[in-house]
Amino acid sequence: MTPRRAALAALLLLATFALYYLNRGIPPQDQRPPVSVGAADSTGQKAADSKAGGGGTTAPRRTGSSDGAKISAGQAYNPAEFPIAASLNAPGSTIQRDLDILNQVFDAWRSNFPREGNPVGENRDITRALAGENRIRFALIPPRHPAINANGELCDRWGTPFRFHQVGGEEMEIRSAGPDRRFATEDDALWNPVAGSFQKTP
Amino acid sequence: MNPKNPAPDLIRRKFLGQCCAAVTATGMLSTLAQLRMMGAVASAGNGPQTPARAGAVNSDFKALVCLFLAGGNDANNMVVPFDTTGYNDYASAAGRGAIALPRTQLLEIKPGASDGRGWSLHSSLNADVAGTNTTGLKSLFDAGRMAVIGNVGTLVVPTTKAQYNARSVPLPLQLYSHNDQQVEWQSSVADKPFVTGWGGRVADLTHAFNDNTSISMAISLNGQNSFQVGKRVVQFAVNPGGAIALSSSAGSSTPAGVRTLAQNDLLAARNANLFEAAFSGVTRNAIDDSALISGILTGNPPFTTAFPGTGLGQQLRTIARLIAASKELGLKRQIFFARIGGWDLHDAQLGAHANLFADVSRSVAAFHRTTVELGCADQVTLFSASDFGRTYNTNGDGSDHGWGSNHFVVGGAVKGGNIYGKMADLTIRGPDDAGTRGMWIPTTSVDEYSATLATWFGVSATDLPVVFPNLRRFANPNLGFL
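Predict the joint structure of the above. Result:
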């Protein structure tokens, strides 16, 4: 092979790798067991990270994107490493702002997992995925965020688990039961993914 | 320049040129394939003249009707445990709680084969047009004309709870998502992006049965859908009130008439450009099909059975009319798509669900009765499909997205009065629960369910893998209900 051809082949190889990593978004990590979210699941069993890392002090560590952080057990984590989710349910804020934040979280998820679409399942499955239990262990919400209840569900500012309505791989409708904590009442709040906007809904 | 190779640049250029040529050729072939497909549609000229209406279908005629319950039907309240233990678990707070149906209202069924559990149907599932509530779906089950298929859903491979939890087997793309699951149900390919629907693939294989290929054998009563997307057969959308008018029959003195004349002139013009010619041909045929079907759907139908005035009732009534006209149309195989929405009942489920079931029972029973009247009940099979099942556990006033679900098949050829497949173990967090709320892991795949229907329709065993590429992964390519 001539030096020119070798250089060309190397260049092509490099370009292929560059394209692969750009498309993937986040570089692959090790294949350790996923870190569980929340203090306990609904069967009362303690989550895996609590066992491994000393309960509530178990901490993930940021290594990645500006939207969130790569997590690993045993490392301290800084809420500031989760700039989108940090102000979710913040005192003095509004449910409208909270829903907007969650929509940004899902947007960021889709950017980081472009081939997979939204996370799926029950609230706690989706929360787990957003909090780092995914193939690249990338969290967009701190695993110990105060909005996550003991069942591992992401809750609104009144403590009711959000309803994640999976319309499509790219569209997630998000509903809060509102201050009365009952769904399908006048104070419900909804993020409409088709309109891309917040709305109050009966 | 390499002395051993006097013209490496030339060779490299040649190589690159060949690559480019290959890419271009592939694109051209693809384009030609598309043109061929369009040409097949366009080549039939102006289509047949409207034939005289006949009274019965061909003896070797078959029709398949997909009834899509859009939004995700809660089949946990369609087929309900009836034995004392099963019902008590069902009605308990840990079971369905607030959305449990009263046992006294349930319609007990006695399937031919028993899994040891007693079953019943929702009280609205014997609703009929006459209002007697004695000739609806439940009576069809009792008469052996309706079968229930238990816990069907999208699967990539047979999946156990342990495998689901460990994610050790591939799972359907975007489980629990409306749009994705609708498409996967209609494509019967749960692990790849959508290309064609299984109804379209069946049509591609069976349209040769038809004497007349100028009119589509795949007709949708609810607009475009994924189910009927094929590579050769193009789906044709019809309104329940008749064909979608693509031209006007008004005289040239009216604006609509002038527009039609101008449109005809444009389509009749000779086009040097292949795409323009193909487009003109396809449009010309669509207009002809539209006129032909409008003619068939005008006037009184050739049957007396009354249908509900609902959207679904009118869709199925139109399908019955098109089946009645199949002989005139020169069709021995037809595939229809009907759809009823409103099943995504996260809230206020009980009342809305009862209304939907009553509509389905009235409409489907009327449809089946019409096929009996037309003498073709054995040649028409209607089957249900839906996005997914729903959570067994209530959210307080409704249910949320689940996975496996029960379905029904109706027709004279159906070996009814029985439950096929395997009903889910209705235990929250039990062996069939993918989560903590009763999201049943399917025990029968959409592939097995659909392949059974396709086999009855005429797809040979050797062609089944063409239509259902993942079927070989599952144990039962024929569930035996037809």
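The helical segments of chain A are 3-24, 48-53, 95-112, 123-130.
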